[in-house]
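User: Last request for today: this protein with 2'-deoxy-thymidine-beta-L-rhamnose, please.
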Amino acid sequence: MQSTLRWDIFCRVIDNYGDIGVCWRLARQLATRGQTVRLWVDDATALRWMAPTACPGVEVRPWATPLALPHEPDAGDVLLEAFGCEIPPEFVQRYVDWRAADGKPPHWINLEYLSAERYVERSHGLPSPVMQGPGKGLSKRFFFPGFTAGTGGLLRESDLAQRRAQFDRGAWLAKQGLGRRASRPLVSLFCYEPVALPALMDQLAAAGAVLLVTAGRAASALQSRRVPAGLEIHHLPWLSQDDYDHLLWACDLNFVRGEDSLVRALWAGAPFVWQIYPQHDDAHRDKLEAFLSRTGAPDSLRKWHRIWNGLDAGALPPLDLPAWRVAVQGAQRRLLAQADLVSQLLKFVCVGPGGQETP
Ligand code: TRH
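Assistant: Here's the final one, the structure of the complex with 2'-deoxy-thymidine-beta-L-rhamnose:
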């Protein structure tokens, strides 16, 4: 049994598009399962291209300072802060008052970044007592996405397999003006500024590939680079999240980055290379290795990742797409057997420790 709840999701855009990308995807999936969502975001610019059409059940509200507090007399049921962003105290105060007036228990969730590292299983679901501010005395709970059954899982729409099966690759490529390239190796590029980009371009030129370059940093990274003979470059406009999926489904090899596009590449099932979001303390090295181990990456793919991420020097090994395809499809099969993130989140909130409905 699933209750209809009202969710307040808070999202601060730090840089790039992962924060808002994950929050929008989460909000949308909650809404398709009958939930009502207010998504509070400090910079909604990217939603113009990422989400060009509204989603019934999701209302995007500006997170300005001071916050325009909702006038509704009724309380939201769940407070969710994405990636440790701090919910404005005036909103927390209102939430505390609402819950007290309703006599219902509070639900305050801290949604964390995705990682395949071991600490995720240990930390998922742990309480974090609030020590100060209007929420003092409450307890937030950590919700960690992840790759194993002991974590919060991965975002995955319930109709994803059906949409994938109905995808018409030829028609989609024709719509992008790529109809005549459909028989050539197609490679999508979504990246930061990888040092090995010229080496990749040389490999793709030798394979007669077409490189489909996403807008933004990937396009800038390519600017003023010499394009080797044999490689064709096609620049894409900003795509909606659904069309970005179509791009991944249409290509033979995908270069992805950050967090959300990584998960989409896994669901696409084609060979991919991930550029991890770099952290100053080099923490991304362990995070990358954990991911490669968790997904059973063969040696050639591991080596490729280390060089692509600037963690090892040396020449890029050849692209070994058949072996990489086997690895990604094996990982996909294992992950599909796990409950998706939104199903787990709803259970996390709706089902108390004893199995009773709590809100
Ligand atoms: O943009 P990113 O590099 O985001 C990063 C990471 O999430 C990182 O973990 C985080 O700390 C940092 O931001 C602040 O990559 P990511 O996560 O793949 O997000 C990109 C989103 O943009 C994703 O939802 C897919 C979407 N997208 C489109 O909708 N259309 C497009 O044309 C493209 C290129 C991307």
